[in-house]
Design brief:
The chain is of the alpha+beta class. It is about 30% helix and about 40% strand. The chain starts with a strand and ends with a strand.
Length: about 210
Amino acid sequence: MEYFIPTRESVTEFTEKRSRFIGHVWRVDSEEEARACIERTKKEHYDARHNCWCYRIKDGPVRYSDDGEPQGTAGQPMLNVFEREAVENVCCVVTRYFGGVLLGAGGLVRAYTQSAKSALDGAGISVVRRWVEALLPCPYSWHDRVRLEIERLGGTVAETDYGADVCFTVLLPEERAQEILDAVLDLSAGQIEGIVSGERFQDVPWRERV
């Protein structure tokens, strides 16, 4: 089982025809937590024309609000961003300070979509799944090549200890763990052999903003 969540909280902003759009994304674990984020934002931006929002909770509710914008132009387009990316346990509020120029329905959909997407890009996306944890001791001369090979094959370096040699603690997708360890062994002509040390079920950054 795996699913995707925001890596961190993120706030982004842009202006469209003098209207100011502030996108805010949080990682949340419950509807109550999402509602609390929305209420805090409404209090912070009490003077804004609109505070539109949406949230998706894994195995739980999915909700959205246009907060006074024409129906279908804000909350649903925002939600669509997270549905397309399969991101769950997420809450998003887009605050609009009206600039005096009407955007029309199409313009609103584009602006709210862009704001939600920009905030998600700023947050990054993490994958939550079961990982095999392994130790990879290697000479310093192999540091960069081993790290790159692990990441290229879908693993991640969780910790790095620097002693007489480098020792990576790596997290590997459980269904490919042995394949990745074998690849490192082949790459190093048998010098670097991984030692499986356990399992973890956790989130790991999957896609960061470029």
